[in-house]
């Protein structure tokens, strides 16, 4: 086994995590150039893991390469939100349909545990940096029984992109009661095996969140 390759892979993964967090938290703003030399100096690494990290973040939709500017953080926009949450509604409702017949009591208890963690963050002044991760942990727990690995990977990337916008919303709107209630309703419908109601609840939850985020973005422009 080549230890050098493992070390480089681990280093690249660390750079990806750092840059992803900076973009999602808006520390690196949309449209900002991501100069490889400057980032390498700032993070104390060579240009190789920086380049590899930027390519991975491009695949996640957080970075784009321009012929004239090089790598830049992707811009935030109402159009991007509409597309992200539209895709989420389609894919997540489909995978929930497939997951519900396979859910065990243990699966549902795992979802309840994830929801309890999430609820603890839905108060003013909570650490918003954990919000997206725990939101995804809850949703992911409902979808895993479907056994659709590729679909889960795509949905995971959509959630990563969504987190960028959700943090902006949290900064201007601390009323999380609707999201909290939606999650509890969704879990209860899954317990009752009410597929139609669960699908409707999930779709409305995702699309309503998207519409609220578009209002936030439009108000900031």
Summarize the entry for a quick read.
The protein has 221 residues and is mainly alpha-helical.
Describe this structure in words.
The protein is mainly alpha-helical. The protein folds into two domains: 3-73, Arc Repressor Mutant, subunit A; 78-220, Four Helix Bundle (Hemerythrin (Met), subunit A). It is 71% helix and 4% strand. The protein has nine helices and two strands; from the N terminus they run H-H-H-E-E-H-H-H-H-H-H. It has a two-stranded antiparallel sheet with strand order 1-2. Strand 1 and strand 2 (70-73) form a beta hairpin. Helix 5 packs antiparallel against helix 6, helix 5 (105-119) packs antiparallel against helix 8 and helix 7 (149-172) packs across helix 9 (195-220).
List the helices and strands and how they pair.
Layout (H helix, E strand, L loop, with lengths): L2 H22 L11 H8 L3 H13 L3 E4 L3 E4 L4 H22 L5 H15 L11 H13 L5 H24 L4 H15 L3 H26 L1
Antiparallel strand pairs: 1-2
Helix pairs in contact: 1-3, 2-3, 4-7, 4-9, 5-6, 5-8, 6-7, 7-9, 8-9
What characteristics describe this protein?
221 residues, mainly alpha, Arc Repressor Mutant, subunit A, Four Helix Bundle (Hemerythrin (Met), subunit A), two-stranded antiparallel sheet, 9 helices, 2 strands, 71% helix, globular, disordered N terminus
């Amino acid at each position: 086994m080549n230890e050098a390759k493992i070390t480089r892979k681990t280093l690249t993964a660390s750079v990806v995590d750092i840059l992803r967090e900076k973009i999602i938290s808006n520390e690196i703003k949309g449209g900002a150039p991501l100069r490889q030399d400057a980032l390498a100096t700032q993070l104390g690494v060579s240009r190789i893991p920086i380049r590899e990290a930027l390519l991975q973040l491009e695949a996640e939709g957080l970075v784009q390469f321009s012929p004239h500017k090089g790598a830049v953080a992707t811009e935030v926009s109402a159009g991007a939100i509409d597309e992200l949450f539209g895709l989420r509604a389609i894919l997540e409702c489909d995978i929930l349909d497939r997951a519900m017949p396979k859910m065990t009591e243990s699966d549902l208890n795992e979802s309840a545990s994830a929801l309890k963690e999430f609820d603890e963050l839905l108060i003013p002044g909570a650490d918003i940096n954990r919000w997206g991760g725990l939101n995804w942990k809850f949703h992911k727990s409902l979808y895993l029984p479907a056994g659709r690995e590729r679909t889960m990977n795509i949905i995971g990337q959509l959630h990563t992109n969504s987190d960028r916008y959700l943090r902006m919303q949290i900064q201007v709107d601390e009323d999380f009661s609707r999201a909290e209630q939606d999650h509890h309703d969704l879990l209860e419908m899954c317990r009752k095996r009410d597929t139609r109601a669960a699908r409707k609840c999930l779709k409305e939850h995702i699309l309503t969140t998207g519409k609220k985020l578009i209002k936030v973005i439009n108000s900031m422009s």
